Amino acid sequence: MHYLDHAATTPVPRPVAERMCEVLTEQYGNPSSQYPLGLQAARLVADCRAVVAAALGCKAESLVFTSCGTESDNWAIRAALWHGRRAGKHIISTAVEHSAVREPLRALALEGCEVTFLKPDSRGRITARQVFDALREDTVLVSLMLVNNETGCVFPVEEVARGLRERKSAALFHCDAVQGFLKVPCAPAAWGVDLMSFSAHKLGGPKGIGALYVNPSLKNLRPLMLGGGQEQGLRPGTEATAQIAGFARAVELRQENLAEKLSRMAALKACCLERLLTIPGMERVGDGEAPHILCLSLPGYPSANIVTDLGQQGVCISAGSACHKGKASHVFTAMGLSKRTAAGAFRVSFGPETTEEDVDALYEALKNHQANRFPML
Predict the structure, then answer these.
(1) Statement to judge: residues 122 and 265 lie in one domain
(2) What is the rounded distance in angstroms from the CA atom of residue 146 to the CA atom of residue 152?
(3) Does residue 64 sit within a domain?
(4) What is the pLDDT of residues 140-175, one digit of tens each?
(5) Are residues 284 and 323 in the same domain?
(6) 323 annotated active-site
(7) Confidence (pTM)
């Protein structure tokens, strides 16, 4: 099998799985319990929090563990709106956010909020100027992703954070960094971001664990759920110690020779792009700078058919975000792609494990598909 869908999820390295197994079978105490096994679990959670926080350049107490990136996004958005409830109900985001941000915002719009969805240009780019031009006195939240999960475009998060401070805006700034952490620069504390979301399974960690960075200046952040006093009283529920341990171990492994890994991924992406563009009719979609995501289109060949056929040939790619499940991509619609280009779009995404052989297999599989399938009329 040739796995080229790392933006959807990533393989879990054996050391991560072994660490999780150790915690599940030997360090299984409840971190809230006061006897030695529970205190051991509490120390484990604290140590893991410190590992992830160090990779982000923030204080450990600024990081709260959640069940996933989607929970972190929903919590950040709802909490930010509650925080600014006396200042207004205007929200600024983009038309190309992940559904974990887009759907909560659509729900808030039905509840009376006004949401400005900024549209990208034809290459998928969003500028800081667009954000500033949309800013109003009653804006209480700006939510901007770090890396678009379909095009790989990197958005100007640091510039927006700085601009909001310079304009003395009361709006909180949330960033969905699920696709950006340990792939592009990501420094919430240094940038001055208020809330930033993460997920472990995008970088070699297990599914079912994420995190939310909370700026220390934010006091009395409203929890998404109510219950016990875990996670500084912000996120109730017994901590998922094995998943937390897996998250931290994955971060440690990914950080080893990180610059070399990212350089290699970027080189493979460039090689893949060069090869695939030799296939008649192939087009690149977007100007994604992230080293791990490449979006292309074979107009006239439905992407769902491409993905299915390549899967049967042992090559795993996607037609975009795994959350679409065959539906038309809102990202491509917002970019203004033609129907033929959007219908033929697919995503290739890389990881540290990706090889030149994987790229060769993708090229051959696409050539086979084009030779053996009738194009869409």
Answers:
(1) no
(2) 9
(3) yes
(4) 999 999 999 999 999 999 999 999 999 999 999 999
(5) yes
(6) yes
(7) 0.95
